[in-house]
Design a protein that fits this description.
By secondary structure, this protein is α/β, with parallel strands linked by helices. It has helices at residues 38-55, 69-77, 88-97, 111-122, 134-143, 169-180, 200-217, 235-249, 267-271, 273-276, and strands spanning 33-37, 58-59, 83-85, 101-107, 126-131, 151-156, 185-191, 226-229, 252-255, 287-298, 301-304, 319-324, 330-332, 337-341, 346-349, 358-362, 375-379, 385-390.
Length: 393
């Protein structure tokens, strides 16, 4: 599928552009533009597939990070058990992309979504979702009254001050019992999200609650009980805490890390488990934003033409890495940093650059990077465009 004038970063005033050998820096592109390095994406997917196989866990990467069918397909081809999503619309998109198994890692309280899911399950699709209250069970029971298929449910365990999830093992067991006793529902296991916790000790405490809840409710599961957790910052701790009990009791462990497919140069660069355990794998930042220096209005300050519309900023500012000068030379930007963004401008400090230079910005937190770009050129290591990633947010 080609691109035309409607795609940010592509310069196609007339007609359409199909990928096939164009070079980023002298081809039909303008600035800013975000690209994905093919070698890094492929290596990251292979690293996580190997990691999960080595530790005996399944992988359902969180699709909300990319909402890109080509990346979903690549992860599934590498052995992913399924794709995780967070909303009914994302589940619908994943179904249309052809994803055979979707885990909706959130409460679903919209009867329309539940009835649609039941209809798709009746046609052979695999679908799981969360509940954390008797109210959620009751909504599902009413929505599914008269449906012939049953929906699989994971009871979510949470923590005080967090978002969703039962706040105690006792509550989780009560909800699980309600699921088990409800027509139209099937208890699949227990799940949690540890990524908002402050440190590894807190993560371990939550995961032990998950194990305690799973131990209580596993007899009510009609298939192999699932225990699931694992954002992109503590999946090693999830493996530590869940795989032992899972092996003992015959459970399935499902990790849901989403940011790993592209990694980053900011938040996850410093928080990835592979920094703590480098012998277990490595991830490489795949996303690059190239933007032009628009002005050098005062000493020590340069204004770069990319801002909040183009760059994530919720988990740290973009990271200036290299500058490409008018003659095509590249040099590192050691010591430079960005301290402020407007809608279309970045405030670059401590860099020696000239008006018109191109700046390579690494991103922090890919979950809020992909959604800013409808189409992302995929480039090889020589910056030839070899593919296009289309996103559906």
């Amino acid at each position: 599928m080609g691109v035309d004038w409607r795609v940010k970063g592509a310069w196609v005033p007339e007609g359409a552009l199909a990928p096939g050998g164009q070079r980023l820096f002298d081809g039909p592109f303008t600035w800013p533009v975000m690209v994905a390095k093919r070698s890094a994406v492929d290596a990251n997917i292979a690293t996580m597939a190997a990691y999960c196989a080595r530790h005996g866990v399944d992988f359902a990467p969180h699709g909300k990070t990319t909402m890109a069918p080509s990346l979903f397909a690549a992860q599934l081809a590498a052995g992913a058990w399924g794709i995780t999503v967070a909303t009914g619309n994302q589940a619908l998109a994943a179904r249309r992309f052809g994803v055979p198994r979707v885990l909706l890692a959130n409460e679903v309280l919209d009867p329309k979504v539940l009835r649609w899911a039941a209809g798709e399950v009746a046609q052979g699709w695999e679908f799981l979702f969360y509940v954390d209250s008797r109210a959620g069970v009751d909504v599902a029971a009413r929505a599914l009254s008269g449906e012939t298929s049953r929906l699989r449910v994971l009871v979510e365990v949470g923590f005080d001050g967090g978002r969703t999830g039962c706040r105690s093992v006792t509550d989780a067991v009560t909800v699980a019992r309600a699921v088990h006793d409800t027509d139209g529902l099937e208890l699949a296991g227990v799940s949690a999200f540890e990524g908002m916790l402050p440190d590894e000790a807190a993560v371990r405490a939550l995961l032990r609650e998950v194990v305690a809840a799973a131990t209580e409710v596993a007899p009510w599961c009609s298939n192999t009980p699932i225990v699931s957790a694992g954002g992109s910052a503590y999946f090693d701790t999830v493996v530590d805490e869940l795989t032992g009990p899972a092996a003992e009791h015959g459970w399935r462990v499902v990790l849901r890390s989403g940011a790993v497919v592209s990694h980053d140069d900011g938040f996850y660069s410093s928080h990835t488990p592979f920094r703590r355990r480098p012998d277990d794998g490595t991830l490489t930042a795949a996303l690059e934003v190239w933007a032009q220096v628009l002005s050098t209005p005062e000493p020590g300050l340069s204004i770069v033409g990319a801002g909040k519309r183009d760059l994530p900023f919720d988990e740290g500012m973009p990271v200036p890495l290299r500058v490409r000068t008018a003659d095509g030379a590249l040099r590192q930007m050691d010591g430079a940093h960005i301290d402020r963004l407007n809608d279309q401008h970045a405030y670059l400090r401590g860099a020696v650059v000239a008006v018109g230079d191109l700046v390579h910005l690494g991103i922090s937190h890919p979950c809020t990077a992909f959604d800013k770009w409808r189409v992302i050129p995929v480039v090889d290591d020589d910056y030839r465009v070899v593919d296009l990633i289309h996103t559906y947010f």
